Amino acid sequence: MPDALSSFRICDFTGQLAGAGATKWLASFGAEVIRIEDPVRQGRWDILRGLPPFVDERRGIEMGGGFNNHNTDKRGITLNLRTERGKELLTRLIEVSDVVSENFAKGVLERWGFGYERLKEIKPDIIYVSNCGFGHEGPYSDFKSWGPIAQAVSGLTFSNGHPGLEPAGWGYSYMDHTGAYYMAIAILLALVHRQRTGEGQWVDLACADAAVTLNGPALLDWTVNGRPLRREGSPDSNRNAWPAMAPHGIYPSRGDDDWVAVACRDQVDWETLAGVIGADWCNDPRFADLPGRLADQDALDAHLGDWTRERTKYETEALLVDAGVPVAPVQKPEERIDLDSSTGDFGLWPTARHREMGDVRVDGQPVHFSKTDWRIERGAPCLGEHGEDVLTRVLGLTADDLAQLREEGAI
Amino acid sequence: MSALTGVRVVELAHESIALAGKLLADMGADVILVEPPAGDPARHYAPYLDDTPGEDRSLYWWHYHTSKRGVTLDLDDPRDRERFRALIATADILLEAEPRRRLAALGLDYGDLTTVRPDLLHAAVTPYGRNDGKSDRPFTDLTVMAAGGPVWNCGYDDHSLPPVRGPQQGYHTASHFAVLSLLTALLYRNVSGEGQFIDVSMHAACNVTTEAGSYSWLVAGETVQRQTGRHAAVNPSSETQERCADGRHANTGVPPRTPAEFGRLLQWLRELELEEALPEAVFLQMGAEWDGPFDLSRIGRDDAVTAIFGAGREAMKLIASRLPAQDFFVGCQRAGLAAGAVNAPEEAFEDEHFKARGIQVPVSHDELGRTVIYPGAPYRMTGSPWRISRRAPRLGEHNEEVLHDL
Fold first, then answer.
1. Which residues, in sequence order, are CB contacts of B390 under 8 Å at separation 6+?
2. CA-based, 20 to 30 A from B66: which of A1, A96, A215, A246?
3. pLDDT tens-digit map of A150-173
4. From A125, which residue of chain B is nearest by alpha-carbon distance?
5. Model confidence at A252: pLDDT above 90
6. A115 vs chain B: nearest CA distance in angstroms?
7. Of B72, B51, B50, B49, nearest to B61 (Cα)?
8. Is B162's CB within 8 Å of A259's CB?
């Protein structure tokens, strides 16, 4: 069985997570993703090339663990776009590509002479997907961004936290991950459209736009009822307003910084939980029905927290799973990666072979296809690792051509 | 023409996949939302129109089911199962999040349905995947995110406070992977004629959406620790969230790193007449006059470089404390520094930038005789536009027009 996307070639300028995460999906389903980097700056535009974590004491642009994670199964070439020969090679590569993808600041590709109008001249049905924090149009389009900025400005940072405290926000770049998912969705949608109509298009993706749309019910509460999320006692993101549930939260457990999530979806869940706990406070008439529990949720949570604190998160989990109440330990990385057999059994942590780092486990894809499943085998490309392969196989250059290009500083 | 015009999707209503169906429907797919005769429970989720509950008054429901048509079928009734099979025969895609053995017990699982639609794409979204018994456990968005990793990363420097989760985002992440999968499989089907079954695990989806949370462990066996308003990290990092003069917060983002950025920051400090209030301002001057790029590895080891970078952070903090959050954000960006105001969702929604990009989309609610403003497109597809084609369906609204043809 061939790979699902093996007929597509992506001329890929993406980096960091917000861009590279998108083309990782395509590469793991067999698309030929050709990552183009700048030989003069040694690909350092993607700062993850040299950032931790590291597999050992070695450092440098081939040793970044995050870079390896986000760029599996891509091919890497270098083109010096300051040179005419470099531009010519890029032009020839675009001629045989389906997609040009990038997540530079607005205007970078255009300054190199490869804006959308030029891309269309080179290949009329090209799909061009740009991804930047605030998009290529609008008052903030020249503003700089990365995940935490997009999360802050869009409302996602504010939405996470305890009442009365400053926002807790996101402890990682949720919108670099999710911006990458939207970028990959946009590329796939544009490919479907081209498959059916023969037409290419430009997609102007702004991570901050995508982030705003992830606040849906809160935004309708604003536009319909005029109720802002910024109000007394709000947000309270471990509780659940849509739908209202109580108890619902993250409670302390015995152990070192250990926590357990418990949610009662309805009256049956509550009565089951109360039966497991079997303490007098469970019969407090204040907690008899949902309106009562919502009204006295602080007291309810204090009681439940006292109960969960007496046992480990896994003991609480076992008790409530048996009873049929939604429960989950707050798992630490080691627990969910190596000790929770679910992820290993799913094949979620494939080992990729990197030319310098050797065999390293990486994030897999959280899905399985019955016929054309994903594969992750190779680690991220080293700088220019596949230059010879791509330039000879795809563009038909000879060894002599390559020698001359190197001499000219074009690759 | 939208990208998915003519693609028919049957979605078995469940809160965890509602966003996946909406993403397909807003791109033109004909999404038929199938509910039991009593309606999907999410019809009764707050918030409500005018704060009054009712089957068609849930704003939660309105948001997640735009552009879909709605039918009711009782899959426990053999006659309705026949109607469901007939509906599948007209469909390209089945999107569902049923308990993992339910469809097989009803004779409606992938293998059964390919007899009426051989090239069907069937995406099943479950907590742990179709092959894991843990998928039979009850769950909510909260428990999915807690077990799956995001929650461990999120919270405060003070670890006596519980970590936090972003509401609905576990379901959102699962929905994103369902859509990625279906579009990938659709591209393949369109050239090969082959359908297939797709197993989506919510737990796995969260596990690969934690950035360094996972790969610090995978690569180096290190555990990240949560910090207020910034990335969880193996080693503590500098604070990036400041309370501004108006009580709102700002993310101070990436402090200056180049001589030009130090120069612009100093210039702005002077315009605000705050240079006197910052004892370290002299180091900003040094930074602005530095010869060549900084060697960032010397921070903490070289006194001058350390003082210059410390002054950059102090200047950002000082300015943030003296300005409203929005003015700080725009001022930083005009100085070429990546920073952001921590907006509430409604503040983002009313912001001139997002409005100019079309974030506010009017949708007609004929039954109320009014127009409601909805959040707009997550991407601007210039050749195959995103569009909300209709408000969410009322219970059984399209029974006649959809089921009659079968």
1. B66, B67, B68, B69, B363
2. A246
3. 999 999 999 999 999 999 999 999
4. B383
5. yes
6. 15
7. B49
8. yes
Other beta carbons within 10 Å of B236: 10
**Alpha-carbon distance B367 to B331, whole Å?**
46
What letter represents residue B42's amino acid?
Answer: A
In this model, does residue A8 exceed pLDDT 80? yes
Residues 6+ apart with CB under 8 A from A87: A81, A112, A113
User: Can you tell me which residue has the tokens 């196989």?
Assistant: A393
End-to-end, the C-alpha distance of chain B in Å comes to: 26
3-state helix, strand, coil in chain B (%, to 5): 40, 15, 40
Looking at the complex, report in whole angstroms how far the Cα of residue A251 sits from the nearest Cα belonging to chain B.
7
| pLDDT tens-digit series, residues A171-227 | 999 999 999 999 999 999 999 999 999 999 999 999 999 999 999 999 999 999 999
pLDDT given for residue A1 in this prediction: 61
A231 DSSP assignment? B
- Scanning every residue of chain B, which has its alpha carbon at the shortest distance from the alpha carbon of A205? B379
- Residues of A in Cβ contact (< 8 Å) with B329: 153
The tokens 């081939």 sit on which residue?
A62
H helices of B100-252, in order, are 102-105, 110-113, 141-148, 150-153, 169-192, 202-207, 212-220
List the structure tokens of A321: 């799973």
| The two structure tokens encoding residue B186 | 């659709």
Contacts of B132 in chain A (CB under 8 A): 342, 345-346
B373: part of which helix (H) or strand (E)? strand B370-375
What distance in Å separates residue A110's CA from the closest CA in chain B? 18
pLDDT in tens, B272-297: 999 999 999 999 999 999 998 888 87
Question: CA torsion sign, A380 to A384 to A388 to A390?
Answer: positive
Beta bridge partners of B8: B30
Find the angle CA(B390)-CA(B396)-CA(B397) to the nearest 5 degrees. 40
H/E element, B201:
strand B196-201
Residue A71, classed as helix, strand or coil, is coil
On whether the CB atoms of residues A221 and A237 are closer than 8 A, the answer is no
Q: What is the DSSP letter of B393?
A: P
| Predicted local confidence at residue A282, as pLDDT | 97
Identify the band that residue A98 occupies on the pLDDT scale cut at 50, 70 and 90.
very high
Judging by DSSP bridges, how do beta strands B249-251 and B241-243 pair with one another? antiparallel
The span from the CA of B32 to the CA of B175, in Å, is 17
Task: Kindly state the helix (H) or strand (E) to which residue B306 belongs, with its residue range.
Answer: helix B303-322
Question: For residues A314-334, b (16+ Cβ closer than 10 Å) or e, as one string?
Answer: bebbebbbeeebbbbbbbbbe
The closest of B8, B176, B384 to A192, measured between CA atoms, is B384
The pLDDT confidence band at residue A272, using thresholds 50, 70 and 90, is very high
> How high is the pLDDT of residue B401?
96
How far from A35 is each of A38, A112, A128, A333, B115, CA to CA, in Å?
10, 17, 15, 30, 42
- Does the beta-carbon distance from A342 to B128 stay under 8 Å? yes
Report the predicted TM-score, pTM, of the whole model to 2 decimal places: 0.98
Task: Tell me the chain B residues in contact with residue A152 when contact means C-beta distances shorter than 8 Å.
Answer: 250-251, 340-343
CA of A145, closest CA in chain B: separation in Å? 6
Q: What's the CA gap between B6 and B22, in Å, rounded?
A: 15
Cβ(B38)–Cβ(B16) below 8 Å: no
Q: What are phi and psi of A201, to 5 degrees?
A: -170, 170
ipTM of the complex: 0.98
Q: Is A73 helix (H, G, I), strand (E, B) or coil?
A: coil
> What is residue A364's DSSP assignment?
-
Q: Cα–Cα distance between A199 and A196 in angstroms, integer?
A: 8
